[in-house]
Design a protein that fits this description.
The chain is 61% helix and 6% strand. By secondary structure, it is mainly alpha-helical. It has one domain. Helix 1 packs across helix 2 and helix 2 crosses helix 4. The radius of gyration is 18 Å and the shape is globular. The N terminus is likely disordered. One of its GO terms (cellular component) is plasma membrane.
Length: 173
């Protein structure tokens, strides 16, 4: 996919822009998950001891995937991505498939689980293990900064990449 104004490859998305977009997208998916939880709580709520709790966890995960998957497969851009001028495309520059979305979501989720595990290790006093997990996470971030296309692990494994969009020339507000 070439930038129509310059004829060159679109600029990759740097780490800070990527993290800003992740934070904003995290707020949006949290709102979706709160609505799902509200819907479930209308029927009496579900605690971890409830027999339907595994189904509830699956529903939450599926809802998060559908939020991201829908935007990624329908134009490659969510509201936060639009705000940060970022688009998700396949490695060739085309549209992202549902399979690529699932792969990207699963690997990204595993990366966040790793981060949360490291925090838990730190909080429970298992500092050497937490430091090891932190080193792995830091290595992934350094890899992203040094990679020519600024790809993260979930980009590499899903065959996708983030591109930076040009300035918005719509005039806006």
């Amino acid at each position: 996919m070439n930038d129509s104004t310059t004829g060159s490859q679109p600029a990759p998305v740097g780490l800070l822009r990527r993290l800003g977009c992740m934070a904003y997208d995290g707020i949006m998916v949290l709102a979706v998950l709160l609505l799902v939880t509200l819907g479930v709580s209308i029927f009496g709520g579900i605690t971890p001891e409830h027999p339907w709790y595994p189904a509830y966890v699956l529903l939450v995960g599926l809802s998060a995937f559908l939020y991201y998957g829908w935007f990624w497969t329908h134009g490659g851009i969510s509201l936060p991505m639009q705000t940060w001028r970022v688009r998700l495309v396949s490695r060739s520059g085309g549209a992202v498939t549902w399979l690529q979305s699932l792969s990207r979501f699963t690997v990204a989720l595993a990366q966040w689980v790793l981060v949360l595990w490291g925090i838990r290790l730190w909080n429970t006093g298992q500092v050497p293990m937490a430091a090891g997990v932190g080193a792995v996470v830091l290595a992934g971030l350094v890899w992203t900064v040094l990679h020519p296309q600024k790809l993260m692990l979930h980009d590499l494994l899903s065959g996708t990449r983030l591109i930076r969009l040009g300035p918005d020339r719509s005039g806006g507000i």
